[in-house]
Design brief:
- The protein has 377 residues and is an alpha/beta fold.
- Helix content is 40%, strand content 13%.
- The strands form three sheets. An eight-stranded parallel sheet has the order 4-11-10-9-8-7-6-5.
- It is globular and about 60 Å long.
- It starts with 15 loop residues before the first helix and ends in an 11-residue tail after the last strand.
- The relative contact order is 0.21.
Length: 377
């Protein structure tokens, strides 16, 4: 893979770990830390990966997998694989085209793209790309503005709203604090007024991004907020950031269409349970009441298989797409999703599964597999 703007993403890249290493080599250190870092001592960031590596799948034998396929449905729509691109803020930190390039890559891969409230590109420009687009919502201090964003997403053609429920304020991300990280002048949140410049004001020993979100986000998002959103929109409603089965059950009872079992990629409460460990209990609690997705630490097709076997309908993938964008823009993001699809089909077939439904019938055991194989030849 080459630097941003290169013509080819490099067929010699064989894993998402290869993409991450290439991105680390070209990104400015502050941006690299902003994307890669977690909160606190980054205990949960590391635990997400370790917990996934402990999940061992028990393959089935003597199955005809000649017609193996990764195709499935999410929220009633056909997708090429049980994957959606997760909402990530400020794509233009790594790629001049920003979210537009990632949305094109997702469309080419046949998976949904989730546009963040903190996108650098307006919703309307992203939905113009085509494909399936979901809108991720942070509940703002100004409720009217929050609901206006939802209406705008509907009008633009988004097909679902994803409310993030684990960010009353941003977790203490020490890499950003130590770097005094702030947005460059040319990078701004397109859905906020130009006067919202707190995120650009660099201060030593503080994160300008955290200061901006503290100003903008409401710490009082509650089940009443969920009810108001459910009443306000006709779109399928997803709650992202659920880890407790009790909350999952209440979400299903509240008319939510899907939940994302997520610890925000280790970026909110440090010490929170790894998402893959919380997944089985959450899936059991909701049953068929709503779809269950998972994110945090997914780095390959085997991870998708693990999540399916433990009860997920699909996974969200965030950082790997950003790594791909950083290296070769849209082509790099396409390569990430292509690798993920190839690895998932391989994992399905080798586990004796012809499709995603078969994968959800697989047994798992907890082992002590080493993460050393991650990205190894």
């Amino acid at each position: 893979m080459g630097r941003p703007g290169a013509d080819s993403p490099g067929r010699a890249v064989h894993t998402l770990a290869d993409v991450e290493r290439a991105a680390a080599a070209v990104l400015p250190p502050g941006v690299r830390d902003f994307v890669a870092g977690g909160s606190g001592a980054e205990t949960t960031l590391a635990a997400n990966r370790a917990a996934l590596d402990r999940v061992c799948v028990v393959p089935r034998a003597l199955r005809d997998v000649s017609g193996c396929t990764t195709e499935t449905t999410l929220l009633g729509r056909a997708v090429a694989m049980p994957v959606a691109v997760a909402p990530v803020a400020y794509h233009r930190l790594v790629c001049a085209e920003g979210e537009t390039a990632a949305a094109r890559a997702a469309k080419a891969a046949g998976v949904p793209f989730t546009v963040s409230t903190l996108s650098n590109v307006p919703i309307e420009e992203i939905t113009d790309v085509g494909g399936t687009v979901w809108f991720q919502l942070y509940w703002l201090r100004d409720t009217a503005r929050t609901l206006d964003l939802v209406r705008r997403a509907e009008d633009a053609g988004c097909t679902a709203v994803m409310l993030t429920v684990d960010v009353p304020w941003m977790g203490r991300r020490l890499r950003d604090v130590r770097n005094g990280f702030a947005l460059p002048r040319g990078v701004r949140a397109a859905h906020f007024a130009a006067a919202d410049s707190t995120a650009h004001r660099r201060r030593g020993g503080a994160s300008a991004i955290a200061a901006h979100t503290a100003e903008a986000f409401s710490p009082a998002v509650t089940w009443e907020s969920v009810a108001a959103l459910r009443a306000h929109t006709r779109l399928p409603l997803i709650l992202k950031g659920v880890l407790d089965a009790r909350d999952a059950r209440r979400a299903a009872d509240s008319g939510v269409d899907a939940i994302v079992v997520s610890n925000h990629g280790g970026r909110q409460l440090d010490g929170a349970v790894p998402s893959i460990d919380a997944l089985p209990e959450v899936a059991a609690a909701v049953g068929s009441g709503c779809e269950v997705l998972m994110d945090s630490g997914v780095r390959g097709g085997t991870d998708v298989l693990r999540a399916l076997a433990l009860g997920a309908s699909a996974v969200l993938v965030g950082r790997p797409v950003i790594w791909g964008l950083a290296v070769t823009g849209e082509a790099g993001a396409r390569r990430v999703l292509e690798l993920l699809g190839d690895e998932l089909r391989d994992a399905l077939g080798l586990s004796g599964c012809t499709d995603v439904a078969d994968a959800r019938e697989l047994r798992t055991v907890r082992g002590a597999m080493s993460g050393r194989s991650r990205g190894a030849p």
